[in-house]
Amino acid sequence: MNLIAQRRSQQLKGWAKDLGFLGCGISASGFLEEEAPRLESWLKNGHHGKMTYMERYFDERLDTRKLVSGSQSVVSLLYNYFPQETLQAADVKIAKYAYGEDYHFVIKDKLKILLNTMEANWGKVDGRCFVDSAPILEKAWAAKSGLGWIGKNANLIQKQVGSFFFLAELIIDVALEQDGPTTEHCGTCTKCIDACPTEAIVQPHVVDGSKCISYFTIELKDSIPQSYKGQWSDWAFGCDICQDVCPWNRFAKSHDEGRFQPNETILSKSQKDWMQTTEEEFKKLTKGTPLERAKWSGMIKNIQHLRP
Ligand code: SF4
Ligand code: SF4
User: Fold this and answer.
1) For ligand 1, what atom is nearest to the CA of residue 199?
2) Catalytic residue among 132, 194, 222, 240
3) pLDDT at 103 over 80
């Protein structure tokens, strides 16, 4: 056992905990052999819909050494976003992850602190930080590093906290002690598959992204196909259904991240309020939040889809 790698891994996990991360797991940077056929078949079946960016960087997506040359370790991190209470207007639902400030900013700031702390203690560290921002199979890395298992709803689940957390990674040129995968605990449960209103979970662990409400309300720039009219109730930005029904989320504990405090002005808006919101008001209201990404035209499209 390399004692330096072991000591550094322990230090890193301690710093991550101090910064508020729920979990930190480590794997050696390399090729995700088991994921290669899964990704290939997912793309071949068109489950990425119009997310054509998923077709690019196929090799880098599967091999972190190609993504960050010279990298030795992939550090996966979890950051809780489970709110104290579910907030929603009478006829508009917004996914919980989007209640507060955009997580990219919040988590990137913490990853930078973590990198700086490593450098201050270990000397020069070459690496990159990722938060949902690069071709990296985040859930696969987190599972390989023992942070949970990939449930039938394709989310990473941890027994103690459920699945309402963000994933982030540091890919660095420092050798660290590796963690191994954990066990799977979905058993015979099929609650997520049964509850999905668009039948997007086409088989256990496989979500057809092109049928998912999150895709329709966040990713898709075109109008939502009429055939989906009335299939989901009130979800105007994202969808939490397959996580809300998951028994493991009984164990979710609320976050204490001030920057994720719910934006009550956004969350109290009804369909009628959104339809009356001008583009300028929308920009002001959603600046620095995940909803900014949908843009005014996207949000109006989503609300129009909900209305009779
Ligand atoms: S997020 Fe919603 S639409 Fe997508 S798979 Fe889960 S339940 Fe289905
Ligand atoms: S709802 Fe059941 S099957 Fe689906 S992810 Fe949770 S435990 Fe697994």
Assistant:
1) 8
2) 132
3) yes
